[in-house]
Amino acid sequence: MQYASIPAILRDYRTAHGVDVEWAEFCARARDGDEHAVAIMRRAASVLGRMLVNTSHILDPEIIVLGGEPSRDIPHFVDDVADVVRRLALPPVGRNVHVRAASLVDAPAATSRAGIESLHALDEVAATALSA
């Protein structure tokens, strides 16, 4: 949240460029190639990617789904995050994890359901391990 959230991105843009902008304007500037906006988005993608590398080393996911405005509104943001994960993760993790943008714009119910299903799967794994 400190580096890759919308408030942090807009704060960094204001610091670098000296101008306050709303998210839509920032996105337009990034799409138009504004060097400050592009650099800030790459930094946010890098920070998020490094955090996901650490998480991936613990959880070993097959897929990471990025939601939220940056992944929807900024060209190449998801690709930049995926590149960081592939480059910095340990080879068994980096070559097997896929980073994708969420296809649903506002899906709190789907997110909640996915979390519940993940917990059920963990319970099944634990029960199997304990019975063996």
Total strands: the figure is 2
Question: N-to-C terminal Cα separation, in Å?
Answer: 41 Å
| Helix-residue proportion | 55-70%
Shape: elongated
Mean pLDDT: 87
Quaternary class = single chain
- Specify the number of helices: 7
Radius of gyration: 17 Å
Q: List SSEs in N-to-C order.
A: HHHEHHHEH
SS strand fraction? 5-15%
Strand arrangement across the biggest beta sheet: 1-2
Instruction: Specify the biggest β-sheet.
Output: 2 strands, parallel
**What structural class is derived from the secondary structure elements?**
mainly alpha
Low-confidence region ranges: none
Protein traits:
single chain, 132 residues, mainly alpha, two-stranded parallel ribbon, elongated
Describe the protein's architecture and organization:
This protein has seven helices and two strands; from the N terminus they run H-H-H-E-H-H-H-E-H. With 132 residues, the protein is mainly α. A two-stranded parallel sheet has the order 1-2. Helix 1 packs antiparallel against helix 3 (35-59), helix 2 (23-31) crosses helix 3 (35-59) and helix 3 (35-59) packs across helix 5 (77-88). The radius of gyration is 17 Å and the shape is elongated.
